[in-house]
Write a structure and sequence with these properties.
By secondary structure, the protein is an alpha/beta fold. The chain has 10 helices and 26 strands. A 5-stranded parallel beta sheet has the order 3-2-1-7-19, covered by helices on one side. Strands 9-16-10-11-12 form a 5-stranded parallel beta sheet, covered by helices on one side. The protein binds flavin-adenine dinucleotide.
């Protein structure tokens, strides 16, 4: 074991890991900060992978996260954490190096999953999670005229939107009867689905891909109703799984769905270890004591800062780390904004900004979700102004940070990265035992 005093190790340099690094330094931690990151690219804005990078409006260099060199961080890019001994406080890398730590931030995010046997990585067959994935996909889309997107979630629909806007034919396959039903709720999902149909996406809803076969130019997808789709390129956006494989078998950790944490993001069963971002499953007491995982950019950022503060022994404001989920997406000429939680059995109120239009979604729709505590979530489609005022109300009652409304309104994430460090007064990591 490397002898260490006051060393913080961060695993994963996505938004959660980098926010943790920034917060450690902002809070005055002056020990060594080591970041292990298994991608070879420096930290970047992952959300741009399905937006600006794919469309070509941004090049990879444009989406780098601005990390202040004065943070004095030891970056280990291309290095993966491979094992953990939480009692000895030692982490082992994929090269067998042992790193002792006083505090550890697990921010390993997620990795895309596809059914067994799908030929990911072969020419014309893609997943979309990393910048490298996005760059490769962009290159291959140039020569594709028919693109099949498997999975109608946010990433799949953003890809479909780009494919259509660039004049290519898009076939979208999803087992549900509408796209985006999970992140937006059934009503907004149905409205967006109508818009996709109007924009001539070849929708194969209620269908699953049974088999994938190579054909002379591209891929053949055999669907469960016996129909076939032949496409030059396939993009599989069927799901992701929290990246905890390196923690498999560590006694005392619950990795059944991400890493189980307490309400302050302390990993249950591992002293001086916190988790942040998509990998963390924690009780978001804003809504419920039942631990949940949230896969959003703003969650990762807020988590990273809060987890670092917890590690340093300070109280995050209010004690528990609470969070109001929120995200936006732009696709098919629709600006979609979501804040809060959407209870499955609550009351739903719909406001049409321009009632009577055939293209309802384009005219503007605000969908308010009410649960046992009152208004719990809002979904807006082309209703930015109305959304902003509702969102302000929700955030004000939640006690969330002041910057939050700007975050959901911003056309890109870029301006938000500046000036976001609110130092939380905390001293140093607990001394090594
Ligand atoms: C294409 C795409 C578009 C998206 N668009 C939006 C959007 O518009 N809005 C929104 O709110 N959210 C969006 N998201 C989700 C958002 O990007 C994630 O919620 C956020 O990036 C999570 O950040 P994170 O730091 O928790 O994890 P990640 O961003 O996944 O970063 C974790 C990093 O850790 C690395 N890692 C994993 N295991 C190890 C290990 N053992 N050792 C070392 N390194 C490791 C991974 O390679 C990864 O780089 C999008 C996601 C994708 C994939």
């Amino acid at each position: 074991m490397t002898a260490s005093r006051q060393r913080a190790v961060v695993v994963g340099a996505g938004r959660a890991g980098t926010a943790a690094v920034e917060q450690l330094r902002a809070a005055g931690f002056d020990g060594e900060v080591v970041v292990l990151h298994d991608e070879t690219t420096p930290p970047y804005d992952r959300t741009a992978c399905a937006k600006g990078v794919l469309s070509g409006k941004q090049r990879p260099a444009d989406v780098a996260l601005p990390m202040d060199p004065r943070l004095d961080v030891t970056w280990r890019l291309g290095r993966r954490a491979a094992a953990l001994d939480p009692w000895a406080k030692v982490l082992t890398t994929d090269e067998g190096e042992e790193l002792g730590y006083d505090g550890l931030v697990v921010a390993t995010g997620a990795a895309p999953v596809v059914p067994p046997g799908w030929p990911v990585g072969q020419p014309g067959f893609h997943v979309l999670y990393t910048l490298a994935d996005a760059w490769r996909l962009r290159g291959e889309l140039r020569t594709a005229s028919v693109v099949a997107v498997v999975g109608g979630g946010l990433t799949g629909c953003e890809v479909a939107s780009f494919v259509c806007s660039s004049g290519r034919t898009c076939v979208l396959v999803d087992p549900s009867d509408r796209v985006l039903g999970r992140p937006l709720g059934p009503m907004a999902g149905a409205l967006v689905t109508d818009e996709l149909a109007r924009q001539r996406v070849d929708l194969r809803l209620g269908r699953r891909v049974r088999r994938v076969e190579p054909v002379r130019r591209g891929w053949l997808l055999l669907l469960d109703d016996g129909t076939e789709v032949v496409a030059d390129a396939v993009v599989a956006t069927v799901g992701e799984r929290p990246d905890t494989s390196w923690l498999d078998g560590v006694p005392g950790l619950d990795t059944s769905d991400g890493l189980l944490c307490d309400e302050r993001l302390r990993v249950v069963g591992a002293p001086d270890v916190v988790a942040a971002g998509t990998v963390a499953r924690w009780p978001n007491l804003q809504y419920s004591p039942r631990p949940v995982r949230l896969g959003q950019w703003i969650t990762a950022w807020e988590h990273g800062r809060a987890a670092a503060a917890t590690l340093l022994g300070g109280e995050p404001p209010g004690g528990a780390v609470t969070h109001v989920p929120r995200f936006w997406s732009e696709q098919f000429g629709l600006r979609i904004q979501v804040i809060g939680m959407l209870p499955s059995d609550g009351e739903v109120r719909v406001t049409y900004l321009r009632p009577g239009r055939r293209d309802v979604a384009r005219g503007g729709v605000l969908i308010s979700h009410y649960g046992s505590t009152g208004l719990e979530g809002v979904v807006a489609v082309n209703a930015t102004r109305a959304f902003t005022s509702m969102a302000r109300g929700l955030l004000a009652t939640s006690g969330a940070a002041i910057h939050a409304v700007a975050e959901i309104q911003a056309p890109t994430h870029a301006p938000i990265h500046a000036g976001i460090q609110t130092p939380i007064e905390v001293p140093r990591l607990a001394a090594v035992g």
